[in-house]
Amino acid sequence: MSFNLNNDLDKKVHFIGIGGISMSGLAQILLKRGYTVSGSDMHKSPLTEKLSALGAEVYIGHDKSNIKDVNLVIYTAAIPETNPEIIEAKRLKIPMLTRAEFLGLIMKGHKYNVAISGTHGKTTTTSMISHITLKENLDPTILVGGELDIINGNVRTGKSEYFITEACEYKASFLKFYPYIGLILNVDADHLDYYKDINEIQDTFQKFTSLIPKDGYLVANADDIRASQIASKASCNVITFGIDNGIITAKSIHFDDKGCASFDVYNSNDFLFNIKLAVPGKHNVLNALASISCALILNISNESILNGLSSFGGTHRRFEYKGIKNGVIVIDDYAHHPTEIKATLSAAKNYPHKRVFCVFQPHTYSRTLTLFDEFSNAFSDTDNLILADIYAAREKDTGVVSSDTLGDAVRKNNVKCENIHSFKEIVSYLSENLKDGDLLLTVGAGDVFKVGEMYLEN
């Protein structure tokens, strides 16, 4: 269907799942453009409350009666066909679009669309590019999958031709986008509840590159084998980055006592500048190189690149400092894939600590099952692992896999691991065992962050 942000202001748009990080961002973009917006979600949250304050009509719970005088319905990939609002919209023959399709339509209204894809690092890299473009005063529209302080949330509505967004591969949703610059940070096995194997995932990323026009650019991680293979087949301009390979590279990398890197940046053999990051971990060197590559394509000044990256202190839930109690530092991280967990624990090694206590909450039964062996080998860099129950998200417990079975596999790898089944009991265990100088990490994409907050308040 056709949808013009400037010409269809008389339309009322309804979002099923409006409390999601991306859906709430799209809703805010429309609200700021003058649209009438309604939406529903299963639970009240700070995001739904923010949307209500901005003028959206938000319903808690899904019901067919929520579809009132609606001209367009947007729904997420997680919404089933049995949802009563989906059924009602179909009955009334109201046009419907997925979140990805609608985001693609919005992107059509911009010339310089920057779409950041990859199995890991999308939110951080999107945030880094956002910082850089804001320092350059490009006035971009930004949609990021996390809370970013510089834009006071997860969305910014600009008036320029620049649009910066994450491009998620789940259910191939990013194939609905219109990138001028497409970034591939890495290609790893994930979302195996949808994809049959890693080869299908790689093929889908390859299709993503075909969306980039010939005069556009692909920015790809040359240190990632699959991303590099994809780049070799792309028909647009290609810029590669990496620590060991690529056109844009980092040399002379040093880490400070908080695990934050400083390094020299080179364009082929030409020295560009030295930079110091304010976020920890070797993986963030790669995220920074991806951001620098994008900035160079957009002819952004070195000064804005340096100011943007040095001012970026991270997004919420990405190695986020939560507080300190009795000499114990509490950090929260969104990592929910084995590769991400290893990167987070690696970053923690460079952070001042005596012992690392990691509280991990697995995210979805399907991911835990399909990556079971990888998860069981992901925790060698922690001194004490506490496994919470699996966060179901969109799934039901079939009894095939549990946090207990994962714990048994982890313990076989000689990692000290406890299975504790409630947050209250986890906090009690932590209070009894943590000592001055220890580092507490809460890790996962669910609500495990509450453990750290409860510990600090206890």
Task: Summarize the structure in words.
By secondary structure, this protein is of the alpha/beta class. It folds into 3 domains: 12-99, NAD(P)-binding Rossmann-like Domain (Rossmann fold); 108-310, UDP-N-acetylmuramoyl-L-alanine:D-glutamate ligase, CATH 3.40.1190; 320-457, Mur ligase, C-terminal domain (Protein-Tyrosine Phosphatase, Chain A, Alpha-Beta Complex). The chain contains 15 helices and 21 strands. A 10-stranded mixed β-sheet has the order 8-7-9-6-10-11-12-13-14-15, with helices on both faces. Strands 16-17-21-18-19-20 form a 6-stranded mixed β-sheet, with helices on both faces. It has a 5-stranded parallel β-sheet with strand order 3-2-1-4-5, sandwiched between helices. Helix 6 links the parallel strand 10 and strand 11. Helix 5 (122-135) packs across helix 9. The N and C termini lie far apart (53 Å). The model has no long low-confidence stretch (mean pLDDT 92).
List the helices and strands and how they pair.
Layout: E1 12-16, H1 21-32, E2 36-41, H2 46-53, E3 57-60, E4 72-75, H3 84-91, E5 96-98, H4 99-107, E6 112-117, H5 122-135, E7 141-148, E8 153-156, E9 162-166, E10 181-184, H6 198-209, E11 217-221, H7 225-232, E12 237-242, E13 248-255, E14 260-267, E15 270-280, H8 283-297, H9 302-310, E16 320-325, E17 328-333, H10 338-349, E18 356-360, H11 365-370, H12 372-376, E19 384-387, H13 403-411, E20 417-419, H14 423-433, E21 439-443, H15 449-457
Parallel strand pairs: 1-2, 1-4, 2-3, 4-5, 6-9, 6-10, 7-9, 10-11, 11-12, 12-13, 17-21, 18-19, 18-21, 19-20
Antiparallel strand pairs: 7-8, 13-14, 14-15, 16-17
